[in-house]
Design brief:
The protein contains 9 helices and 15 strands. It is α/β, with parallel strands linked by helices and about 325 residues long. A hairpin with a 6-residue loop joins strand 10 and strand 11. InterPro entries: Acid_PPase, Calcineurin-like_PHP, Metallo-depent_PP-like, Metallophosphoesterase_PAP.
Amino acid sequence: MVTMASMASHFRTRAVDLRCLAVVFCAVLVPSFAELQRFEHPIKSDGSLSFLVVGDWGRKGLYNQSEVAFQMGRIGERLDIDFVISTGDNFYDNGLKGVYDPAFRESFTKVYTAKSLQKQWYSVLGNHDYRGDAVAQLSPILRKIDKRWLCLRSFILDTEIVEFIFVDTTPFVDSYFVEPDHVYDWRGVEPRRTYVSHLLEDVELALRKSTAKWKIVVGHHAIRSVGHHGDTPELIKYLLPILKANNVDLYINGHDHCLEHITSLDSSIQYLTSGGGSKAWRGDIEHRDNDVLKFVYDGQGFMSMKMTQASAAFAFYDVVGKVLHKWKIPKQLHSAV
């Protein structure tokens, strides 16, 4: 199997011939119905793992993106983070125009400049990313421009104690396929029914086979949210039953430009929204009774998490780095492997 890592190494060490270009083209554009691609990231020598989560950010430093990035750098240094997770909507308003779009540098490389943020970024696509050249964000060429960048539609990140399943949630949403005001880049997704069906099979297989102490699923769209966009019915119908059946601990998303912590009434899943990377303050929080709302902040910010075999501790920060909410989950009270 051709992996993103092997392709990047190939591009660094030799000229690209037409046959290799064809392989890259097929890998990016053709839906893969095999097992999800897997990446590994080591934990620290003390057995812990620390990372930041930010979403809905790419605005060339505007709307307080730079201020959030500064605080991410400060907290990232304090926690000695191992990597950063992006929950999508990486480039506004309409994704990238291509692999050499200057917006990539202007919204990513030139904004997240702190030393602590010069770690691997693991990213998924959001709906705004699909409004541009979605395939460009998946290209190994961007990894040559900035080695931190890794964005795929769906994939697995194995960190020994935690297994992350990144899920491409945009193709689940019915409205994107009928709305007249925007054009989406569905290359590699259509036929949609087949794509979503196989993706669900891949996610279920990955979760069922996982022996990790913790299971975390990351997507752009919320399953549960009291923010502007609210719950995503398609994810509740198709994805949530798989998460419940396989003892997933956390579902992390962006999409709503706020910070949220919601606990489930009928499972051990905790729903965490980190979508405050830049433009926020919608002012239309709607409290619902589906699950238990522990915290919501209708503003800019990000999330940190530190995990061990025994516990997961997370915190939400605002644009000046103030801790707004923190929570610790002991594993013995959560899903057992």
